[in-house]
Amino acid sequence: LPDLVDVFDPDWERSVPAALAPRDRTKVDVDTAALYVYDTIEINPQWQVTGGLRLEQYQASISNKRLAGGAAPGDDFDDTELSLGGKLGVVYKPLPNGSVYAAYGVSTQPPGSYLSNSDISRTDQGLPALIKGADPVRAHNYEIGTKWDFFDSRLSTTAALFYTEKKKVAITGLDVGQTGAATLKGYGEQVVKGLELGASGKITDNWDVFGGIVFMDSERKH
């Protein structure tokens, strides 16, 4: 059968149908530089505080090139931002083998539809293009959890509730009947909340255990 391909002996000279040939080429570059400081302060044997700040600058650039038979490419994109983020956490140890903690963190992500597909919302028939003039995405992370060791620290268990919220998520597209490059239509939010459980350790000389499960519920507020 001439149309079948032998995966163990493929034909590297086989021609590619025109419909499968690339019609555009996109290049993405993201350069980051950061200065950060973090520290942990032990107030007493039961209480610890961890925190820090991160000053970060990123430069994101996207260039498009039209190939033979392709449509007109989108506009090139270049964006540079300076942002301040960080995190703060508190740990309480009610017993030597267990702890309870709460943490909050905030960070910044570059806008750009080719950088993270999950940051794109299409509310119309438009093609997600570049997001010129869009604000950076701001991510807020909240988490509370607990960690416990059993069997003389041979088994470690964890449980955590988390809530992540992305703000300033760009929405791009074309209005009905509109042609040309997609434009910035506004901003939305994305929320992910969930529960994570895990366990790992060596419970006997012959048995090692490890495992975990995550339950998540996501929502787009566009």
TrEMBL record:
Lineage: superkingdom: Eukaryota
Swiss-Prot/TrEMBL keywords: Cell outer membrane, Membrane, TonB box, Transmembrane, Transport
Topology in the lipid bilayer: Multi-pass membrane protein
GO molecular function, one term: siderophore uptake transmembrane transporter activity
Domain TonB-dependent receptor-like beta-barrel residues, every copy: 18-217
Subcellular location: Cell outer membrane
Pfam families in the cross-refs: TonB_dep_Rec_b-barrel
Protein name: TonB-dependent receptor-like beta-barrel domain-containing protein
Source organism: Pseudogymnoascus destructans (strain ATCC MYA-4855 / 20631-21)
